[in-house]
Amino acid sequence: MAGPKPQPFQARDKLAFLLALVPYLMDHDRVTVTEAAEHFAVEPEQIRDAVNLIAVSGLPGETSAYQHDDLFDIDWDAFENDDEIVLTNRVAIDDSPRFSAREASALIMGLQYLSALPEYADRASIASLIAKLSRGTSGAVAPVSVGGAESLESLTPSLALIRESVDKGLQLEFDYLNARGERERRRVDALQIESIDADWYLRGWCHLREAVRTFRLDRISGAVVTDAAIEHRASDVRLPALFEGSPDDLEVVIDVEASAMPLLADFIPDGARSTPDGGRIRTTLRVSHYHGLKRLIASMPGVVTVIAPEAARAAVAEWAAAGAERYR
Questions:
Q1: What is the topology classification, in CATH, of domain 11-95?
Q2: Termini Cα distance of the chain
Q3: What is the pLDDT of residue 244?
Q4: Which of 121, 162, 179, 263 is the most buried (most CB within 10 A)?
């Protein structure tokens, strides 16, 4: 059964359509009316009307009067005889500001990063946009790549399975080593991949905990894609901040310089007791694992001292000793 017939454009819609059609025609040296109509999901006659309007559009020159070179022009023989659209003169758009090579390189790197994430993997639109950025700059774009994105699969063997789980809409099952050194079998609906520095995390709905949980990819092993369909998607649940507190968090008592307290605000739970002692304050942090605690303490040398528990003190001491050893 044929779909509903496209309705005539309103004035605002017609302008938006023309603004989209001109770049499309510029990206395609030669395109048929039928191909353009299918691309924009409109009737071929609407494409022909738009092309006729483009042909009398332009930008007046210094005399404020339109000359031939101030208007768009098309190959009328191809248009009238073969129903093909070929722009032979382009106005104003060729002179519009373009991304510099450096700006385009930065955008391309960001797109490469996105293409490494399961929810964006194999998106043809990303590859198309990268190609357009490479062509549409004011200078040559240097070959660039995001090291973290390219090395992600080699660093995390489970990534391919996570992608497969997302693509097929099936639950993912794996062994997970938690912050306490305990290994549990988890079954999750994979929702999103995120990274902080060199660490990568899977956000997923955990069927064991019946809530959204965060899993470090390097702590995942034995992953398999199950036959069970996922029950939750990223659009269906609220994804908390990456390090938002959870009942599984670890509590750590620290002494910190009073002036540095604002730097730790995100890690201090509501209602935590803070006791001043001279110029320092004793308070409690909540962290998801001691690996994150090590990084946090290392970023504030001499400002923060871990008091308890002993496992937290040992983790930080080992981290510091390993770092000092590298300088010998």
A1: Arc Repressor Mutant, subunit A (1.10.10)
A2: 77
A3: 59
A4: 162
